[in-house]
UniProtKB/TrEMBL annotation, chains A, B:
The keyword Oxidoreductase applies. Transmembrane segments: none annotated. This is prephenate dehydrogenase. It comes from Epibacterium ulvae. NCBIfam families: PRK07502.1.
């Protein structure tokens, strides 16, 4: 057990990320009390049933009352609304943070609502699964994963340092960058790949001459990895694309250009071009395994028999 | 141990698929003797060192001598050459099969070389990993996976039945379809997804404003699944695209069309269209898990700490 980093933490939204944070905070004793709030009565009831949060409140305002740290764990499109709701109830000297997958938009939505004397340190843990809701979280989600802090200019360095200590206590490695750079990096490593996976799964579903049964049975050939990505929460991803429009469209533009070049190589039978391209991409995989961001075991170490 | 299905099996090519077949054949006692041959002296030496095959031969001709079943386990582009080489040495009544990821092309390349009295039953096990070479195989690769048989018209049903029994003995479920339908189904479930993954990994690698380190560290957000797919053997995949040109280009055309529609929805802020599309793709994932082709555990059941 570490010493508590904050006396009271409030988690607004009780889905995958918030519930994982709660279990990780408890694992390391990083706060005295954690309050929580989710929009629906159903999620609040589930949270109470499974012991998620020391206290589940009936409003966001109640949850943030007296909190030293408030973390917005809602879809990116809801951040502004929630910020407006909690702003009058924030304690002077409190820190507001979030876990949204897009940062420029959160800075713009949340920043203007926050009163003087409240610190604002946007953050984004690069960790997740395709599951969502209060029951999907687990304490080890952030272990050995990165959490990006995106402090806005003039932020109190001490508030940033506290949040960094919290994330490190939850198992994460912490880095800092600007909101715009964050949004470009994530467009490459996450947002564009997700849209592409969604698209490919949609195409397979649409194709009349291939049955769903065939798609499902023969998915082991590569497609099932796309379906995993494309099974993620629709609301979260709608918001990500709408709020990181520019960078996502830029990367998709580059992607289409490159895809057309490879399609042309296939059409003209340019095997050397293909071979060269496919050889280059192997190195990146090696780097990811060396960096500890994935396992070298075949098929991600899936059990082959089930 | 089952009764042997064939007295002698010859495996030509000793990579991922052939080595997995060998271990699966031995696990269930499906043949009295398995001979093997690979192009390079190095792979043959490795095979001898790790006990892969009862006898590793110095030529494909020698390996197929007296074999009741010959399985071509080489890249699709090499199938014709190997067939020409072994044809004069095939035993009357023998069956020739293969494991190539494309079927129309293999039928066209191999068929014409085979003498009268030799059965030809093309096949394709839908199972693999991103690894290759003689040391990458394991006995359970085919367990609970599908193997597609693509018998050409007029094939002896008994020869087909024997091969089916072999694949079932290696743990696979067996289905039959035509070569053209196979190539379309695989273009959807495997070939197009692979090209897309290769493309996206190439784009990330090219982007000057995002460092390789950033791509690698923040890959957990979705991108790492693409890199796994894009780490597969360049020669195998070059051959797949060059030999399944038509179906792959058709699916990529549909994919681009759909991607453009989603890009337009992002650009115009049509959140309903995005949400609806993302909701639909979840059902396919459910189907794949129900069919036992993947695990429901988050992140494919990866260990979260490593
Ligand atoms: N999933 C990932 O892989 C991942 C990774 C990193 C970051 N993120 C980011 O983390 C945030 C949360 O994602 P998640 O995966 O945890 O989502 P989730 O499991 O779908 O949970 C979202 C939570 O937000 C609540 N909520 C929605 N609107 C609200 C509002 N107006 N007021 C209060 N609560 C509200 C929901 O309440 P109800 O349950 O009552 O609907 C739910 O508890 C998103 O911004 C996402 O971009 C996600
Ligand atoms: N990998 C998959 O996921 C997967 C799945 C289903 C089907 N397939 C198909 O299975 C076949 C083999 O794939 P793999 O993954 O096992 O490949 P691999 O691990 O790269 O092995 C290919 C083997 O073929 C040998 N070879 C190449 N050209 C040859 C020739 N002219 N004569 C004799 N041997 C030759 C190679 O010999 P050297 O080692 O000496 O170079 C190597 O042993 C391909 O047709 C592929 O499309 C692959």
């Amino acid at each position: 057990m570490s010493a508590p980093v904050y006396d009271r933490i409030a988690l607004i939204g009780l889905g995958l990320i918030a519930s994982s944070m709660y279990w990780a905070i408890k694992r390391a004793g990083l706060a005295q009390e954690v309050t929580g709030f989710a929009k629906s009565a159903e999620s609040r009831a589930t949270a109470r049933r499974i012991g998620l949060c020391d206290r589940v409140c009936e409003s966001a305002a109640e949850a943030v009352e007296g909190a030293d740290l408030v973390v917005l764990c809602v879809p990116v499109g809801a951040m502004g609304r929630v910020a407006a709701e909690i702003a009058p109830h924030l304690k002077v000297g409190a820190t507001v943070s979030d876990v949204g997958s897009v940062k420029r938009s959160v800075v713009e939505q949340v920043g203007p609502h926050l009163p003087e004397g409240v610190h604002f340190v946007p953050a984004h843990p690069i960790a997740g699964t395709e599951h969502s809701g209060p029951e999907s979280g687990f304490a080890t989600l952030f272990d050995n994963r990165w959490c990006l802090l995106v402090p806005v200019e003039g932020t109190d360095p001490e508030a940033v340092q506290c949040l960094r200590t919290l994330w490190e206590g939850m198992g994460a490695k912490v880095d800092e960058m600007t909101a715009d750079h964050h949004d470009l990096v994530l467009a490459v490593t996450s947002h564009a790949p997700h849209l592409i996976a969604y698209t490919m799964v949609g195409v397979a579903d649409d194709l009349q001459r291939v049955t769903d049964g065939e798609v499902i049975n023969y998915s082991a050939a590569g497609f099932r990895d796309f379906t995993r990505i494309a099974a993620s929460d629709p609301t979260m991803w709608r918001d990500v694309f709408l709020t990181n429009k520019e960078a996502t469209l830029e990367i998709l533009g580059r992607f289409t250009e490159e895809l057309f070049a490879l399609q042309r190589a296939i059409r003209t039978g340019d095997g050397d071009h293909l071979h060269e391209y496919f050889t280059r991409t192997r190195a990146i995989r090696r780097g990811i395994i060396d960096a500890g961001q994935d396992t070298a075991a075949p098929n991600f170490g899936r059990e082959t028999t089930q």
